[in-house]
Design goal:
The protein is of the alpha/beta class. Helices cover 62% and strands 14% of the residues. The longest helix is centred in the last third of the chain and has 26 residues.
Length: 190
């Protein structure tokens, strides 16, 4: 068992060592610009990715405000279970996030879309809606081969692994990097 656990830890560590930091830095810049303008940053994901989005919204809303005196307006589109199920019931599962992007998105907003496969239809539709708005920046976190998300997002942060669990592990670290990077960027600009 110890050997298995050590291999897993080494695999995740290797993924993190090879992250493309310029993409993460560009994502921090996008969040910073949205924070400066007082615009909403939207997050969406399914399952574990949705949980990661919900978690990071807590850090961004509460802790950015506590650290800097001005909170980041962050919302997790996966959190409103009644709204998500209403959209799924009345239209389609592939349409649960796109209408929310239409509602919350505005010039200067950011959509952070998280999908292990990079091919979740509801995530891709949300990104497509943001792109059609032309002034909402999109950030895509993906795993495996990146899927369509890595190709269509304005800023792609791809974790090349065939393990959904390791992709989710790395995505959570990246989300924390975005949060802490944003706080650092704000403090340096002060």
């Amino acid at each position: 068992m110890n050997e298995f656990l050590a291999r897993y830890a080494i695999s995740v560590s290797d993924l993190l060592r090879h992250l493309y930091l310029p993409s993460i830095s560009a994502a921090v810049d996008a969040l910073y610009q949205s924070w400066q303008r007082g615009k909403v940053v939207m997050f969406c994901g399914n399952g574990g990715s949705g949980s990661s989005c919900s978690h990071i919204v807590n850090d961004l809303q509460k802790n950015v405000g506590l650290e800097t005196g001005k909170p980041l307006k962050a919302i997790c589109l996966s959190d409103a279970a009644p709204l998500v199920s209403a959209w799924a019931n009345d239209s389609a599962w592939s349409n649960v996030f796109a209408p929310q992007v239409e509602t919350w998105g505005q010039c200067g907003s950011v959509l952070v879309a998280v999908s292990g496969s990079g091919n979740s239809a509801n995530i891709l539709n949300a990104v497509q809606t943001a792109l059609q708005m032309e002034c909402v920046k999109t950030i895509g976190l993906s795993g495996f081969d990146g899927g369509l998300l890595a190709k269509v997002a304005d800023i792609s942060i791809h974790v090349p692994t065939e393990s959904m669990q390791q992709a989710e592990d790395a995505h959570m670290v990246i989300l924390h990097m975005l949060f802490l990077g944003l706080v650092e960027r704000i403090k340096r600009a002060a």
